[in-house]
TrEMBL record:
It holds the Pfam family Flavin_Reduct. Residues 10-158 form the Flavin reductase like domain. PANTHER family: FLAVIN REDUCTASE, FLAVIN-DEPENDENT MONOOXYGENASE, REDUCTASE SUBUNIT HSAB. Belongs to the non-flavoprotein flavin reductase family. The keyword Translocase does not apply. This is NADH-FMN oxidoreductase RutF, flavin reductase (DIM6/NTAB) family. GO terms for molecular function: FMN binding; riboflavin reductase (NADPH) activity. InterPro entries: Flavin_Rdtase-like_dom, NADH-dep_flavin_reductase, Split_barrel_FMN-bd. The keyword Oxidoreductase applies. It comes from the Bacteria. Keywords: Oxidoreductase.
Length: 160
């Protein structure tokens, strides 16, 4: 296999962008991710690929829960804020207001158009990321008119 062709081919997979959060009490992890897809209708399952050495990974392993905040089309700047280390100050997460998820206790960013909470059912631990399969247990739509932020439109890549 030609590694350059592999990289360019895998980078043609289409993605959205999401701020994933997890919490164990006051301890919070948050990060912008793109490796996420729905994986079943009944039960409603999603799958996410999470970097093994991240704080997010540690908290998802520990609590078995996470929340997904779906970024809107104009929210590239918010996405960038969650590539940086997670900080809570003055009731804000990396500078953005949040509330606690009703089912998971994970932060929900109130400026983002939609969110869901999920409970981990399975984990595939292979390579440098773990694939968590999780059941969607709660969801909220703050802005029904919003369109999602699409990875291709940002010029960023995470894949290859
Ligand atoms: C464009 C882009 C996409 C990313 N997608 C993922 C992803 O799908 N999964 C993941 O675990 N990390 C992804 N990351 C890295 C996370 O944003 C980063 O690990 C996260 O901020 C968590 O860091 P921490 O928990 O160690 O503080 C991506 C980074 C960039 C720049």
């Amino acid at each position: 296999m030609d590694p350059e062709v592999r990289k360019r081919t895998l980078r043609l997979i289409t993605y959205g962008l999401y701020v994933l959060t997890a919490a164990d009490g006051e301890e919070i992890a948050a990060g912008t991710i793109n490796w996420l897809s729905q994986a079943s209708f009944q039960p409603p399952l999603v799958m996410v690929g999470i970097k093994k050495d991240s704080h997010l990974h540690a908290l998802i392993e520990r609590t078995g829960k996470f929340a997904v905040n779906i970024l809107g089309a104009g929210q590239k700047e918010i996405a960038s804020a969650f590539f940086r280390p997670t900080q809570v100050a003055e009731g804000k997460l990396n500078g953005y207001p949040f509330e606690w998820g009703p089912r998971t206790g994970a932060p929900l960013l109130v400026d983002l158009p939609a969110w869901f909470e999920a409970q981990v059912t399975d984990a595939v631990r292979r390579g440098d990321h773990t694939v968590f399969v999780a059941e969607v247990i709660e969801a909220g739509l703050r802005d029904p008119e919003a369109r999602p932020l699409v990875m291709w439109d940002t010029g960023w890549f995470y894949g290859g």
